[in-house]
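Internal ticket - ligand job 333, NAP:
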Amino acid sequence: MKTYRQGDAELAHIRRRKVAIIGYGNQGRAHALNLRDSGVANIAIGARPGASADKARAEGFAVTDNAAAVQDADVVVMGAPDELLPAIYARDLEGHMKHNAALLFVHGFALHFALIAPRRDLDVLLVAPAGPGSALRANFLSGDGYIGLFAVHRDVTGHAKALALSYGVAIGCGAGLIETDVREETETDLFGEQAVLCGGSAELVRAAFDTLVEAGYAPALAYFECLHQLKLLVELMQVRGIAGMYKAISNTAEYGAYRSGPRLIDEHVRKTMREVLSDVQSGRFANDWVRENAAGLPHFHAMRAEAAAHPIEAVGEEIRAMMPWLTQTTQKR
Ligand SMILES: NC(=O)c1ccc[n+]([C@@H]2O[C@H](COP(=O)([O-])OP(=O)(O)OC[C@H]3O[C@@H](n4cnc5c(N)ncnc54)[C@H](OP(=O)(O)O)[C@@H]3O)[C@@H](O)[C@H]2O)c1
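stdout (structure tokens):
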């Protein structure tokens, strides 16, 4: 694993360039604010009329439509949702970007699955903070720094790597920029969110909640035991590792973990995980998501409504109302 830090980058590379950021959402806003605070003076936000455009303007940025924002930009940052990027590139970027500019992705989905074929004269980079923009910004302000991944997908100018490192440090990832490639970043990101972070963990919580409630236990207790306390354990794992987390819990809890964890996550689940990975690697998941978008997201909206109707949501709302100190520390990823 090749990792670069603050001292390996030259901030001057990004400071002297004009950066256009498409979208002012979770990532785009944090990148824009951190770049400005790192001394990048020439930043344009490409936005459509609406809440994001208003916010960017209120926070002091020049906001135009995408084509106007990118036309004299040296670096164009893809901060809009992945599923919208192909249409945005084709309509607003391809014919308007400067010769030899750099196209910078925050996640490799559209690039890896060939939904975008960047013009041959463009440098193509990936700089992906390892977490949400809200945390990237908070750590920048606190001075803690952040970790990011970067990849040089295409280097036409000979300066692509220096630019990627400079950009990565300027947005606050100077604690560690891990070099990867677009395939690896895309496939591990999709697999991680499906198997654990968003898919596996939420389904595990719901299944455990259902098991307790079906057996006659109070939904409030089921909520506390299966969802609310998860954060504490995840924090322990994040800070100390899994073995370190075991040291911090009671011997009874630890013994139960060894006895029941592998019974739950058994060979059948591991086989399914390999199938999920294979779906990602083969492009089956990406094709499915592209088709779903083209059809107007009917299954996506149905599944979202079904998830929102699960009984854990009603009890959770009641319980969270009793804990006003719980704040939005983790906004939309
Ligand atoms: N969120 C994360 O934690 C995270 C982490 C790593 C990488 N990424 C990557 O970062 C990229 C951006 O994701 P995000 O989570 O930051 O997205 P997001 O929070 O949903 O924000 C998307 C932004 O794009 C804007 N937008 C939508 N359509 C547009 C258009 N046609 N022209 C200009 N702007 C448009 C939206 O503005 P409106 O208000 O007008 O809709 C919004 O400001 C993706 O590639 C994602 O995979 C995200």
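Auto-summary: The chain has a mean pLDDT of 97. The first helix runs from residue 12 to 15.
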